[in-house]
Protein 1
Amino acid sequence: MAARATLSHDDYTVGWICALPLEMAAAKLMLDAIHPSLPRPPTDQNTYILGNIGDRNVVIACLPSGAYGIVSAVTVATQLLSSFRSIRFGLMVGIGGGVLNGNADIRLGDIVVSQPTDTSGGVIQYDLGKVLSGGQFQRIGILNRPPKVLLTALATLQAHHFTEESRILEFISEVRAKMTPRIAANFI
């Protein structure tokens, strides 16, 4: 891996987009190290936090304050990919808006990782459907499946959960240790 002082746009392979500043703060706390900013092309209006998690160099971007939704997310992603051309995969990680499923007890604060099934790419985008008169949701489109590199990582994570204790509490403890009291109050 290149020395930290000589990293370029091409050294970043993971793009992480957040919808809210609070989510960006949490993403920043997940980084093992923060890297210096890089020059931004004039066509890129994003501001980035650069760093690494393990041996992966990560670029984090956030939607503009007050500008939410698909158009803002696509604009941020397009500009990120234009500036960081070696991105292998992108993530949008944040606070979920809700789960429309009577079979699962999923609450705010739960960690949810989607995976594809025979009839779904793994993520259900609720504006690709409509609610019928009985309250049932009918999908009218689907999103693509995640890249294989993420699906194989998910399979490995699932295997670890069968054979080892979860490290979630350890990771949460590490993040809390990095927080200032002001930031911690927003996460409790």
Protein 2
Amino acid sequence: MRITVEGISEGQPIPGQFAFAVPHAQDHMALSDNRNPRVTWDGVPEGTRSFAVVVVDPDVPSDASNVNQEGKTLAEEMPRVDFYHWLLVDIPAEVREIAEGEDSDGVTPRGKSTGRVEKGVRGANDYTDFMAGDPDMKGVYGGYDGPCPPWNDERLHHYTFTVYALDVTSLGLDGDFRGGDVMKAMEGHILDRASVTGTYTLKANV
């Protein structure tokens, strides 16, 4: 299989319009366009019955105590965990494209709905947990929300966009399912996959 994420090249910075936040000189960061990029794929294996699109950042600090704290930095070598930015499953076998802005167009305070949309079923991304302590932003964040790494993080973050070709029409997931649920449900059903990884940071000189 082959995947194309328009505007994102392997190992290169992700454009700001696809991010949740962009750098800001006075406030460290400002909310951005938060549009999902256009994703297309081809070279689909025989027997494909559905697709899943997953975006994950493996560089998120495991301890959030000092995230975005004045006078503190997050060391590059500190332990890291996966953070899921996009979960779209049960995409019909005939689909080959998610258009730019189709699953996210702007930051939506308190999140977006999970469940069925035109081209699949949305899961809950990890902003659901990250925003839980903010009374103005807390909620369930369905579908795509783009990069917003800590502005005091010394590590460059990597965002891997992957499309999976699956041998089932549905993964049987519903409600506010999460990244781990998707990865477990796909076990034994992946016919092929294709990925591209872009980078992002809000910290100068990283």
Protein 3
Amino acid sequence: MSCPESLPEHVLTLLKTSKYLHLATCSKPECIPSVSLMNYTYISPDRVYTPKSSPASSSVATSNKKCHYIIMATQKNTEKYENIIQNPQVSVLIHDWVTAKKLSLRKSSMSNTPTPAESTQDSSEQPPSADHPSRLLNLLQELNQSELSQMSATLRGYAEHLDSFSDEFNYYEQELLKANPDARVYTRGENVSVVKVKLVNAKVSDNENNTKFYD
């Protein structure tokens, strides 16, 4: 399982700033797909867990220092956990919704605000002319254009369930909670699994149907 030599800066920015991603898993041998919205944290090569020193662990640590990881937590009695145990190949979809969210909030605040035409006309009068378009219409157009202009990244990787009694489990659990304090609800109890996904490649697409691959 080789790691990508590098990931583009815009993908790294997405990984570092987004709070959620969509995790795709697939059962085996039935090949039934499942998608889940997940809290996560991104682990760059310089933050990868380093086991206690030994010849074997030193070799593993050196190899891992070249890789990018995603850390998530889930209950063991879930479909995605069973899928990961049966089939560790997973995909994640990550998208920057920040701009769209800001525009959506603006849309919400403006939807109850009369347009200039509405404030000067009775409902019995003719609709506003083309010279006075609705601000809400403009806002919706802006929202659509902004959303389409955002970049989405699909990353493929291999998922690994971590032993809950291991130092590695504790390390990554703390890293996950640092990034997402509200994820604590998913790390409570004895039925919890921390999942580490080693990223192996990325596919980046834009609204012009341009796609780039990074291995």
Protein 4
Amino acid sequence: MSRFLLALPFVMIASAAFAHTDGETGGFISGFTHPILGWDHVIAMVAVGLWGAFLGKPAIWILPVVFPLVMAVGGALGVIGVPLPAVEAGIALSGVILGLLIAFAVRAPLWVAGVIVGVFAIFHGHAHGTELPEAANPFAYGIGFVIGTGLLHLIGIAFGLLVGSSTGRMVVRGMGVVIAAVGGAFLFGIA
């Protein structure tokens, strides 16, 4: 476990260009690394965990469960070829909006938070679903992808638990600003 934790920062600094592989996907490892190697996905997945932790129980667990479940629906739409306009913009906006919700300490009702997270999950899922049919082993890819996504949600939750102190709340809100800025960079083609 300690080796994994030491390697995690190096995995996290990988280029966003690796996030969308244009069909060159494989099995479990490709699925696992896909959300971890793309900053556009990293910020959204971490933000879901952060916002859930900020909102507290039951959102701390519901939002990170809603995201992959609804993402599977988006993935299925991508697999069967249902078009979805502005997928990349939707993915970038997920970072902007979720980051701003965290930065401004927005305490949305659980159902509103679930809808927001679910809408963005459709875009993330669709992007991955369009790549999935090319995978050598789509089942292994999907399992790896869910585990990678879950890990990023857990990282967000862990940072979100800092909200218990005034300094921690400032750190979490600051992370929201960074997430929104990175999402904006993707949205405007800067990143």
